[in-house]
Amino acid sequence: MHLDGSMADGGNGGDGRGVDVSAAWGRVKRRLRAELGEDVFASWFARLELEDVSGGVARLTVPTRFLKSWIESHYLDRVLTTFRAEAEGVGRIEVGVRGASAPARPAPTSGKPSPTSGPLTRLHATATQAALQGPGPMVETEIAAPRGEAGTVDLNGAPLDARLTFASFVVGRSNALAHAAAERIARNDGEGALYNPLYVHAGVGLGKTHLLHAAGHAAREAGRRVIYLTADRFMYGFVNALKTQSALAFKEKLRAIDLLILDDVQFIQGKSIQTEFGHTLNALIDSGRQVVVASDRPPTELETLDERVRSRLAGGLVVEIGNLDEGLRTSILSARLAAVRQSHPNFEVSPQVSSYVARAITANGRDLEGAVNRLLAHATLTGAPVTVETAESAIRDLVKNREPKRVKIEDIQKLVASRYNVSRSDILSERRTAAVVKPRQIAMYLSKVLTLRSLPEIGRRFGGRDHTTVLHAVRKIEKQIGEDAVLGDEVELLKRMLQD
Ligand SMILES: Nc1ncnc2c1ncn2[C@@H]1O[C@H](COP(=O)(O)OP(=O)(O)OP(=O)(O)O)[C@@H](O)[C@H]1O
Q1: SS in 3 state form for 104-136?
Q2: Engineering a disulfide at 182: which of 2, 215, 319, 413 sits with its beta carbon 3.0 to 4.6 angstroms away?
Q3: CATH of region 324-401, choose from 3.90.960.10, 1.10.8.60, 1.10.10.10, 3.30.750.24
């Protein structure tokens, strides 16, 4: 996320009128979810991100032009009203397409498209007209395929993000099957027909697009002709081909490839388009060419597609990428941190902070990436080391709000003991060696701050100690935390782990 002054200082710069904009944005999303319901929210808002707020304008982004167009035409007022209720200085909303102007990515001639390549609302009208008129004489079109540098039609020039490769894809339990299938297909070892089409589905940000791009890169490296398209680009290309009376050329171009990768297939809609999509699918699969499709839902739930297309999509291998477990989140996070450190060698994130982030951000890989960017922005802007506490405030809006958990003294003792390699009975014992005294005092301190138990009660639960012993421990740890940042971070992390 781009952090301008207003976000970096906690969002208090002018527009938010003293409101923490990141936090306000978190609340806006929660309200939209509550008011519109989970389905509508997941379809249209889950991938909406706040870039910055300045001059009274809140800049939001989405990954595709289709989402931009849909939100603009259906929900802009609603988002504005909701935003103003949380941060009244916001007077206008702008929606952009993420990555569209990023210099590292090639011009989006297919795949995730640019906001300047024409509003999609126009597409529906054109599609209907085209369907009524039927295709005319066939002429080569430039819209049908990505354009090469010289302006010629270049089907191999689809923009795959160079960062999204198999090498940077971390494999864990929840994505192992999808990964194995994608690799097989990219390798094209003759068993591909078993997985044709390969249909990968997953919730937002769990790595579908990453896997698709990785397969595209690998297949291309093996010399195969690959096209990567998002559903909206497919529709846009097809409708334009109809409009310029070059639909046959478009279809032939598509069918002359080895691997078609189609992302966000849930967005395919319109009768003539889905008929065409069905034909393309059949033609490719029947001639032994590979199709890989990704969606946010299983084929049976693609309500906008007719039954035949759905069953063709379900006829190969359907795999789901499940939620990222903590181990996978930790690995993805450390891979991201390592990647960032290549360009920012001084960017240090302690194991405590990493562990906190991997535990706190449970939703998806995109939020993990967002968290790394925020930690980097924090470190760069303040020059101060990132602590668990500063990390918490930097990523607050990415952390799912949960009811604070009731913490039990027994859990505190168990966790602290395991963290310091002693046993719980050591903590309750009379032993006075330093290796046991320190964790015991930390556990007493945490019992005081995380539970409502009185000092005498805590003393009783720590092997029948006097309340003055507990008070002494609490004061001592409080003082040490103030003086020793590493201990402060350690205790902060233990707190979060207990409250998770
Ligand atoms: N297994 C993984 N290994 C490495 N990075 C991952 C992994 N899973 C997700 N990510 C990262 O998380 C981010 C979001 O992933 P991606 O864009 O592929 O999600 P998606 O499933 O396509 O989501 P959406 O439906 O919103 O487009 C990317 O930065 C991606 O690199």
Answers
A1: CCCCCCCCCCCCCCCCCHHHHHHHHHHHHHCCC
A2: 215
A3: 1.10.8.60
